[in-house]
Amino acid sequence: MSDLSTDPGSPPDRLPQSDLSEAEIDDLAALDALFHRSARYRSTGEYKKFLDFVGKISDYSPYNAALLHVQNPGVTYTATPRQWRNRFDRDIERDARPYVILQPGGPVMMVYDVSQTIPRSEDSPELPNKVTDPFEVEGDLSERTWKTTQKNCRQERIAVREDSKLHDQYGGRVEPNKRPADDDNAIYLVTLNADLDLEVRYVALAHELAHVFLGHLGADEDAWWDGRPDTSDSQKELEAQSVAYLVARRANLHSVSERYLHWYVQAEGPNAPIPGVRMRQVLGVVRYIEEMGEARFDTDRKGSKNEHEA
Fold first, then answer.
1. In whole angstroms, what is the distance from residue 98 CA to residue 78 CA?
2. CA-based Rg of the chain, rounded to a whole angstrom?
3. ∠ CA 151-156-161 to the nearest 5 degrees?
4. pLDDT on residue 1
5. Distance (Å, rounded) from C-alpha 239 to C-alpha 154?
6. Among 3-12, 231-240, 276-285, which is the least confidently predicted range?
7. How does DSSP assign 119-163, residue by residue?
8. Count of CB atoms within 10 A of residue 30's CB?
9. What is the 3-state secondary structure (H, E, C) of 68-127?
10. Calpha distance 28→132 (Å, rounded)
11. Are 4 and 35 contacting, i.e. CB atoms less than 8 angstroms apart?
């Protein structure tokens, strides 16, 4: 069964409650309770289906995608009534039940699945592929995403090197930096296989960053995460591979994502129990790594705690 407890040292994931009304606080509490009660995956098969869903719903944060899954794993593409009307010329069916997710700027918003909509008229356009088949296209990683992620690694005091001598079967490795003076006082050192394609190196980097941000190497005094070095090796690897799988899937790097997790499902079988997974933290780290590739952080390391789930 997955461990869904929130670590005290994880990035904050809620608006200050003093800024919310009682009704809004109740909505957030209900969403959190729904996630903790429902998002429990006891077998490798259930867990893999959950990750595939979160990977497919990439227009939303990983946590919001997870909230959609626990409300209805059958949804495919959701939007607000205004978005359905303005972007797709569709209305919401009468008596359709909304799904509740977190809203950027908070606190919550209501969305509806495509199956709950109807064309507004005979002249309404056909739905685009991103709605009918959002998993269709294989993507490429931009050089900007790669370079921005590397720059933000330095903000987190993580040095990234590439080495063509790394064994072919390894995408990368992470360890405490034994010579921080050589790397701008970086505390952690990630080494990537220089012979791999850019997309493969990026996802390998996500895998190693997950080990750091999930506390698998412990936590230095300025870290925003809690150290969990005593976590079992199997749980550490499953958590880190889950992050890598989701980062790849949500970036449409589908062929790269298949390098991750398949070994676990194949080795254990679809009905095998899974070790405890800090699912809430896994989802938060996925979003944090995505943000690392979107824009260069303009704050110091301690100021980079603000991880927004919505």
1. 10
2. 20
3. 55
4. 32
5. 23
6. 3-12
7. ESSTTPPPPPHHHH-TT-PPP---HHHHHHHHHHHHHTTEEEEEE
8. 12
9. HHHHCCCCCCEECHHHHHHHHCEEECCCCCCEEEECCCCCEEEEEEHHHEEECCCCCCCC
10. 30
11. yes
At 208-229, the pLDDT tens digits run 999 999 999 999 988 999 999 9
* Spatial distance between the Cα atoms of 82 and 139, rounded to a whole number of angstroms: 29
Distance, first Cα to last Cα, the chain: 25
Q: What is the pTM of this model?
A: 0.83
CA pair distance 149, 194, nearest whole angstrom: 17
Which residue carries 């296209």 as its tokens?
Answer: 137
Cα gap 69→53, rounded to integer Å? 7
CB atoms within 10 A of CB 305: 15
Tokens of 155: 């903000």
Pick the most confident of 8-12, 106-110, 201-205: 201-205
The reported pLDDT for the residue numbered 55 is 92
* Residues 151-189 as b or e (16 or more Cβ within 10 Å = b): ebbbbbbbbbeeeeebeeeebbbbeebeeeeebeebbbb
Task: Tell me the CA distances in angstroms from 192 to 46, 140, 199, 204, 213, one per residue in order.
Answer: 31, 19, 12, 7, 17
pLDDT for the residue 8: 27
Which is nearest to 156 in space by CA: 37, 304, 30? 304
Orientation angle between helical segments 44-56 and 233-250, nearest 10 degrees: 30
Q: What is the DSSP letter of 19?
A: G
184: its two tokens: 């701008």
For residue 45, what pLDDT band results from cuts at 50, 70 and 90?
confident
> What's the token pair of residue 94?
């009468």
